[in-house]
Specification:
This protein is an alpha/beta fold and 242 residues long. It folds into two domains: 155 residues, Response regulator (Rossmann fold), CATH 3.40.50; 55 residues, Orthogonal Bundle (Arc Repressor Mutant, subunit A). The protein contains eleven helices and seven strands. A hairpin with a 2-residue loop joins strand 6 and strand 7. The protein is elongated, with a radius of gyration of 20 Å. The relative contact order is 0.09.
Length: 242
């Protein structure tokens, strides 16, 4: 009887769930634990710990939040791919858009979805990914179909893409430098002096950042970037500047 139970457990999809919001993480764990063909082998709130757990336990599927303390979900996915760990990753985000879906696929994820996904749909997504399928933009793909979707999507996108091992950012390297300065509360003059560029160039970069983010002022831009994990709370000192 014990051997039979062990075999049944071995046939289940093994899962790790990683999210730094305890209530949401527990909700995902509880939802997937109710599925007869799934078992949770670990859970974590931080990226670095999650990667170590994945290395040690090698679950079939890892459900990861994109924005995590330490290593973020994209970076973990990229590292799993580099190390050829067989775990298949599903990335979840509260800020769903096609650009981040593309970046998740480039990093090596098998699936990508919004956190407002229905429980039964998440369970089905896990099954599809465990079975070797790819799920992006609400569509089911084979490897060849995913490559075709990526090619078409990237040709139609106007935003730049950072390296798969880095957080997705729709800004150029210079715009990111300016944004980091804005996050630290620096004025345009201070930014110009630090980066050794003209005051007008700083204004142009700030205008471009606001346009790309679709926001009206610097404070909104900082909040927008913080929520998506493109900048960190470290040394933040937001103040109004002209």
């Amino acid at each position: 009887m014990k051997d039979k139970e062990t075999n049944l457990g071995a046939n289940k999809i093994s899962l790790i769930v990683v999210d730094d919001h305890p209530l949401f993480r527990q909700g995902v764990v509880d939802t997937l634990s109710l599925e007869a063909d799934m078992r949770i082998v670990a859970q974590s709130a931080a990226g670095d710990e999650a990667l170590e757990l994945i290395r040690a336990k090698k679950p079939d599927v890892a459900v990861l939040d994109v924005n995590l303390p330490g290593m973020n979900g994209q970076q973990i996915t990229h590292q799993i791919t580099r190390e050829k760990i067989p775990t298949r990753v599903i990335l979840m985000t509260g800020y769903d858009d096609v650009e981040q879906a593309i970046h998740a696929a480039l990093a090596g994820a098998y699936g990508y979805c919004s956190k407002d996904i229905q429980p039964q749909n998440l369970a089905q997504l896990v099954r599809e990914v465990a079975g070797g399928k790819f799920v992006f933009a609400g569509k089911l793909f084979s490897r060849r179909e995913l490559d075709s979707w990526l090619k078409d999507s990237m040709e139609g996108a106007f935003r730049s893409y950072s390296e798969p091992g880095s957080p997705y950012r729709p800004l150029s390297d210079r715009e990111m430098e300016v944004l980091d300065c804005v996050v630290r509360g620096m004025s345009n003059k201070e930014i110009a002096n630090l980066l050794n560029i003209s005051h007008q160039t700083v204004k142009n970069h700030v205008t471009s950042i606001l346009r790309k983010f679709g926001v009206e002022d610097r404070t909104q831009a900082v909040v927008f970037a913080l929520k998506r994990g493109w900048v960190t709370l470290k040394d933040v000192n937001i103040r109004t500047q002209e």
